[in-house]
Recover the amino acids of this structure.
């Protein structure tokens, strides 16, 4: 049994729920994906492998995965929430272009200690820290797009 499966099974048991086969399909697909995804994309990927899943089950399982701490909201794109699995992933910053919706991730390690220190100074105990920076990317900024490249 994978670590994420064990965590989710124990989480569900505490809520009086079971790790059913459809929930297992969802969990496995989430952890096979190494990109951000929305519910519809997740459903389509699972449906390409089995017909034993419903869109409603996927929608009902996402909040459970969020509450279990296995996924997080990554961003909102094209009017849909996008998610990513976080178990085993290093903390990172999301940089989101408000114009084209492009998303980049960069390491969070250099900022994390300063944020924790500031929280301690404020006598604040954070449960989690997520950082999203929204703005205009170099491709959409006509003043800068001639001097930049896609490489970050």
């Amino acid at each position: 049994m994978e670590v994420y499966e064990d965590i989710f099974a124990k989480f569900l048991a505490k809520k009086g729920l079971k790790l059913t086969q459809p929930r297992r399909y969802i969990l496995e697909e989430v952890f096979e994906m190494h990109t951000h995804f929305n519910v519809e994309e997740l459903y389509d990927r699972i449906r390409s492998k089995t017909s034993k899943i419903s869109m409603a089950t996927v929608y009902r399982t996402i909040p459970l995965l969020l509450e279990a701490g296995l996924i997080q909201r990554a961003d909102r794109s094209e009017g849909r929430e996008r998610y990513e699995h976080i178990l085993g992933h290093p903390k990172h910053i999301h940089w989101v272009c408000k114009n084209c919706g492009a998303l980049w991730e960069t390491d969070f390690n250099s900022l994390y200690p300063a944020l924790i220190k500031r929280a301690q100074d404020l006598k604040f105990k954070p449960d989690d820290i997520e950082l999203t920076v929204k703005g205009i990317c170099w491709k959409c900024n006509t003043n800068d797009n001639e001097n930049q490249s896609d490489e970050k």
